TrEMBL record:
GO terms for molecular function: disulfide oxidoreductase activity. One of its GO terms (cellular component) is cell envelope. One of its GO terms (biological process) is cytochrome complex assembly. It is found in: Cell envelope. It comes from Magnetofaba australis IT-1. This is Putative redoxin domain-containing protein. Keywords: Cytochrome c-type biogenesis, Redox-active center.
Length: 165
């Protein structure tokens, strides 16, 4: 459901991609808890942007690792931001899932399909789930990973970035 519409939004042109990334960084998106979040507002932190869905088995498998990374590195200037969407009718189901999985990081959950496709376009589109993008403290993409992540992978990626900062 999530991957197909986002896959159609991939870009080839470099100038357009740069502009789309800037726009995505500045786009205010709703979070599951009713707040608004922009990635620009997280500059100064190392951010793992994780595109996922509740129906995706590898997404569910990686959640405990993301929760552990958030708990381990939050005080050092790191945050995970989950990105998912569906229609409004699924919001309460998603909230129950987040509570059951003890997700301790913000979840971008916006029901505006066009806005979410535009947001994903800034990162080159999303062709599969899960997809994780690691952003440095300036908001630059330094790593893109398709598939589930594990805590050892996250440690290897995050530790050097927190030391540099």
């Amino acid at each position: 459901m999530l991957a197909a519409p986002l896959a159609a939004s991939a870009q080839d042109d470099t100038a357009g991609a740069s502009s789309a990334l800037t726009q995505s960084m500045q786009t205010p998106l709703a979070t599951l808890d009713g707040k608004s979040l922009t990635l620009d507002g997280l500059k100064g932190q190392v951010v793992l942007l994780n595109f996922w869905a509740t129906w995706c088995p590898p997404c569910r498998e990686e959640i405990p690792h993301l929760v552990e990374a958030q708990r381990t590195y939050k005080e050092r200037g790191f945050t995970v931001v989950g990105v998912t969407w569906s229609d409004r009718s699924a919001q309460s189901k998603l909230a129950r899932f987040v509570a059951r999985m003890r997700i301790n990081y913000p979840i971008i959950y916006d029901t505006d399909r066009a806005k979410m496709i535009q947001f994903a376009r800034g990162f080159g589109g999303v062709y599969a789930l899960p997809v994780s993008l690691l952003l440095d403290r300036e908001g630059r993409i330094v790593r893109l990973h398709t598939g589930a992540v594990t805590m050892p992978m996250l440690e290897k990626w995050i530790e050097p970035m927190l030391i540099e900062g």
